[in-house]
Amino acid sequence: MSQKAVVIGAGIAGLLAAAAISQAAPDTEVLLLERDMLHGKPEDRRGVPQGRHAHLLMAGGLAAMESLFPVNMRDRLLKAGAHEVALANGMLALSPAAGWFYRWRRNGPHMITCTRALLDWVVRQALQESTTRVTIHQASVEGLLGTAQRITGVRISPANGILPTELEADFVIDTSGRGSRNLEWLKNIGITDIEERKVDSGLTNATRIYRTPPGAESFPLTMIQSNPYNGMPGRSAMVLPIEGNRWMVSEGGTRGGEPPKDPHRFLQYALSLPHSIVGQLISSAEPLTDVVVSRSTSNVRRYFEKSTLPERFLPFGDALATFNPAYGQGMSVAALSARALAQELHRTELTSPGLSRRVLREAVSHVSTAWATAVGMDVLYPNTQGGELTFADRLTAGYARRITQAAASSPDGASALWEVTSLTASPTRLVQPKVLLAALTGPLLPQLSEPPLTPSERSILQRLQQASINRI
Ligand SMILES: Cc1cc2nc3c(=O)[nH]c(=O)nc-3n(C[C@H](O)[C@H](O)[C@H](O)COP(=O)(O)OP(=O)(O)OC[C@H]3O[C@@H](n4cnc5c(N)ncnc54)[C@H](O)[C@@H]3O)c2cc1C
Questions:
Q1: Which residues form the FAD-binding domain (predicted)?
Q2: Residue 264 lies in a domain
């Protein structure tokens, strides 16, 4: 008899969880329940407010995603207008630990940049084309059915009256995002021992979209990273290319260094960073939107793996853990978790005892890597809440700083750092002998105080600066 799975939330984690089931257990009927009304196009949604800010899809996340669909997701995304950026030489990055990164003529991981609306849309289309067993319904889940031993379905408030209020299922996946009420739902069926940790640097993001200035289409993704080492609030900015010949410009500041909503001050913020290049790039560019500000960016981890989680229930994506978005890892962790589900379902049945615990164990290993990166830095900012600095934190932060210093001017260090950041290699890559040596010997080349621009990039920047002077 075919089985039925319910997935709560059609964000990126929900779509990928549904794809994992439909690929590895194709007879299973999957009901994807989404609170928002979905339309047949890329769209910003109320349920995904973070979608208006910069979203980078790392190589490890893309590879995991590719494994879940019969079509080539990279090609689809690029065809839909997304950009592909090589970490080794396709971007300009100013690191607080080491100055500007040198650019190397090496192969290495790439990342995909586009709006979150486009990414979700391309993934949703691929899912709906690949199977008829997954159906998306507009409904809000209000609770879980079952006992502390086993979940048997969800309680919903259907918007259309088609689904019953008590919807039975053989398996339930919670991908309802950062606002998931899974702790409360589990408490209502008697599970009260799930630990939660929150580390909040007070990060605020402000984003505005601009038309890419004519002639600047090839200008690389540019980022000024935040400085956790000087005891001051973190402040950062990034210009990334997105579909439709546009630039998405995102500023981020921790508590005390928050970027403004006011358009004039938004530009001033970019110009006042340790290097003014982001401000220079946008000062004469045509804005296409207002500045959008979001504050829900804390690192939150729910330790389901340490509790007595019921059978047939799995929390995924932001419902399991969220990370400071500055490191661009949330979607990739969700994709790697979905791949773990598919792998487990290739071996065993959806209803086999212990399935959720086994998948959770694998998902948690990806969560832990991302958590260590994000929290290891966030605890260094002043007034971070919930981030007591342990000896291990100091050690990790100290080594991360040395690796970054080495990576800025050493191709071996850079390769290792980019692979770990991209989630294509595990953190043990950072302690391989060559990398360890690079970290211990320190920078090989002089620190770059100016971005390593090619002659044509330099002339684009000069032209944009001139255009901005002419406007005054
Ligand atoms: C400012 C910012 C920038 C970010 N940048 C990056 C980045 O560069 N790279 C990256 O990888 N990650 C980034 N992230 C993280 C990324 O947004 C999340 O990790 C990702 O969205 C997680 O996907 P999800 O499906 O778990 O949750 P979401 O995408 O939030 O989706 C949850 C879905 O569940 C629905 N829902 C909620 N409650 C219910 C309910 N009760 N019933 C039914 N449906 C429900 C919502 O409507 C929504 O559609 C960023 C986050 C922020 C805040």
A1: 5-345
A2: no
pLDDT in the model for residue 418: 87
Q: 12 CB under 6 A from ligand 1?
A: yes
User: What per-residue confidence (pLDDT) applies to 467?
Assistant: 84
Mutate to test the pocket of ligand 1, among 6, 31, 37, 48 (most ligand atoms within 8 A of CB): 48
**245 lies in a domain?**
no
Q: Are 446 and 427 in contact (CB under 8 A)?
A: no
CA distance 362 to 372: 16
Give pLDDT, residue 138. Answer: 94
Q: What is the pLDDT of residue 198?
A: 93
Q: Is the distance from the beta carbon of residue 43 to the nearest atom of ligand 1 less than 6 Å?
A: no
Ligand 1 contact, 11 CB (< 6 A): yes
SS3 sequence of the chain: CCCEEEEECCCHHHHHHHHHHHHHCCCCEEEEEECCCCCCCCCCCCCCHHHHCCEEECHHHHHHHHCCCCCCHHHHHHHCCCEEEECCCCEEEEECCCEECCCCCCCCCEEEEECHHHHHHHHHHHHHHHCCCEEEEEEEEEEEEECCCEEEEEEEEECCCCCCCEEECCEEEECCCCCCCHHHHHHHCCCCCCCEEEEECCCEEEEEEEECCCCCCCCCEEEECCCCCCCCCCEEEEEEEECCCEEEEEEEECCCCCCCCCHHHHHHHHHCCCCCHHHHHHCCCCECCCCEEECCCCEEEECHHHCCCCECEEECHHHCEECCHHHCCHHHHHHHHHHHHHHHHHHCCCCCCCHHHHHHHHHHHHHHHHHHHHHHHHCCCCCCECCCCCHHHHHHHHHHHHHHHHHHHCHHHHHHHHHHHCCCCCHHHHHCHHHHHHHHHCCCCCCECCCCCCHHHHHHHHHHHHHHHHHC
Six token digits for residue 387: 């981030």
- CATH for 29: 3.50.50.60
pLDDT of res. 1: 65
Atom of ligand 1 nearest to the CA of 33: 43
Question: Can you give the pLDDT at residue 160?
Answer: 67
Nearest CA to ligand 1 atom 1: 50
The answer to whether residue 456 sits within a structural domain is: no
Tally of domains in the chain: 1
Which segments in the chain show pLDDT lower than 50? Answer: none
What pLDDT is stored for residue 302 in this prediction?
Answer: 96
Q: Give the model's pLDDT for residue 3.
A: 95
Judge whether 417 lies within some domain. no
